[in-house]
Write a structure and sequence with these properties.
The chain is of the alpha/beta class and about 425 residues long. The chain has helices at about 15-20, 50-60, 105-115, 165-170, 235-245, 250-260, 300-315, 320-335, 335-355, 355-370, 370-380, 390-400, 405-410, 410-430, and strands at about 5-10, 30-35, 45-50, 70-75, 75-80, 85-90, 100, 120-125, 125-135, 135-145, 145-160, 175-185, 195-200, 205-215, 215-225, 265-270, 280-285. The strands form three sheets. Strands 1, 2, 8, 9, 10, 11 and 17 form a seven-stranded mixed beta sheet that branches. A seven-stranded mixed beta sheet has the order 6-5-13-14-15-12-16, sandwiched between helices. It is globular, with a radius of gyration of 22 Å.
Length: about 425
């Protein structure tokens, strides 16, 4: 079987692989293989935090968010029962904003951009095998239009998403599913602050509502547990009734219409620390490598920052020099955590905080105080402040904001503090593991 020759092969033309391929030197010959190039409907990957948008601009691909009716997001409204308050990004740094968008439309823009690049060959096909030699990965075998084809390259990038088939060949994954998102689109929704994302923490698990196009808000209802929710008629009716008791009044009618006219989509919420092992000629990127709970919308921020880090290591590499290429990949794995660890820690910790009634109330009260107590945590969520030390300062201030409670309510305060420690310790321990083993 004859083999096509490339400098780089990218498995997946999504948010990770598509953006990575588009940002490589035009002198490099690149093959990108994507399972389907038709528009897909997904319920995550639709919220881009400010630093994710800034990273995309830094990669000179900010135009990919244009002409898809993406909506500016200026901050968050936190809702608990009859209480609510807003925190805006503009309090952190004037003009900073995020974006709400439809994942499928964004992916089409990424793939259209790739198809216009002369040095990139974009193929609709299915990679069925990594090609290995004694020295490592030398390419892939894929199927397209009924044909089985081999392609070889100096570097193969596995970026085939949260259900990556090739992750197990290149890493030691410990993937966890703590909950599922149940998603719909709310239409004709009239909100007082339409450019804010809404985080509703009234019930046992959080609900997100944020704009994704000019007449649509994505609603994501968290369903805790390792097993997916049942989707029978009675289960959907119970879902409708339970959520209706939690939603603000202005969202209920639209939610009922969505339940009646749309199919509820379900997506597992994965958490997975990056733990790659080295095989020459290959690297993991995006959700194939590292995932965090999607509550904070940090996925694209982490991915684009990983691409910036990887690109900086590959910038001066001669792809014919295997030693140079291997050092670049090793350096990428060793240095990536500085830009993504705070994103991972916050996402995984905040989800657990909102599942604990005492800590949830303490967090709500802390953020409600305003000033740095609200803008500080939001700067971490936005990806603007990447300091782990700063994140931990606010995390423990939430649990310790009423020191007099150690005297007036000692049992409750000690429970709050112990629960906070029980949440953060394993997350920190997990995040401190090296990205390469």
């Amino acid at each position: 079987m004859d083999s096509e020759q490339f400098d780089i092969i990218v498995i997946g033309a999504g948010i990770a692989g598509g953006v990575f391929a588009a940002t490589q030197s035009k002198e490099l010959k690149i093959l990108v293989i994507e399972r389907t190039l038709s528009e897909q409907e997904r319920i995550v990957g639709e919220l881009m935090q400010p630093d994710g948008l800034a990273a995309l601009e830094k990669l000179n691909l900010g135009h990919l968010t244009e002409n898809i009716d993406a909506q500016t997001i200026t901050g968050y409204k936190l809702i608990k029962g009859n209480e609510n308050f807003a925190i805006e990004y503009t309090e952190i740094d004037k003009g900073i904003s995020g974006l709400g968008l439809r994942n499928g439309k964004f992916l089409l823009n990424i793939q259209k951009n790739l198809s216009n690049l002369k040095n990139v060959k974009l193929i609709e096909g299915n990679v069925i095998e990594l090609l290995e030699s004694e020295d490592g990965i030398v390419g892939v075998k894929y199927q397209s239009d009924g044909n089985t084809i081999e392609a070889k390259a100096k570097l193969t990038v596995a970026s085939d998403g949260h259900n990556s088939f090739f992750r197990k060949h290149l890493s030691k994954p410990e993937k966890k599913v703590e909950s599922y998102f149940m998603g719909l689109v709310l239409e004709d929704l009239k909100l007082e602050s339409p450019s804010l994302g809404n985080m509703i923490v009234t019930g046992d698990a959080p609900i997100l509502v944020y704009p994704i196009h000019s007449n649509g808000y994505r609603i994501l209802v968290d369903y805790p547990g390792e097993k997916p929710p049942r989707m029978g008629t009675k289960s959907i009716e119970k879902f409708r009734d339970d959520v209706s008791q939690i939603l603000p009044e202005e969202m209920i009618a639209s939610f009922h219409e969505a339940i009646k006219n749309q199919q509820v989509q379900v997506m597992p919420n994965h958490q997975m620390k990056a733990q790659a092992f080295r095989k020459k000629g290959a690297v993991l990127l995006g959700d194939s490598l590292n995932m965090r709970h999607p509550l904070t919308g940090g996925g694209m921020t982490a991915t684009f920052n990983d691409i910036i880090t990887l690109n900086s290591k590959l910038k001066e590499v001669d792809f014919q020099d295997e030693a140079q290429l291997e050092k670049a990949i090793q350096d990428y794995y060793n240095s990536r955590s500085a830009k993504v660890e705070s994103i991972n820690i916050l996402a995984n910790a905040l989800y657990k905080v909102f599942r604990d009634e005492d800590l949830k109330q303490a967090c709500f009260e802390y953020l409600q105080k305003g000033g740095e107590k609200s803008t500080g945590p939001l700067s971490i969520l936005a990806g603007i402040n990447k300091s782990k030390k700063y994140l931990l300062k606010h995390f423990f201030k939430v649990a310790m904001q009423h020191p007099t409670h150690f005297v007036t309510k000692p049992k409750k305060q000690m429970r709050l503090y112990k629960n906070a420690l029980a949440i953060i310790r394993p997350i920190l321990k997990d995040e401190e593991k090296p990205a390469i083993v």
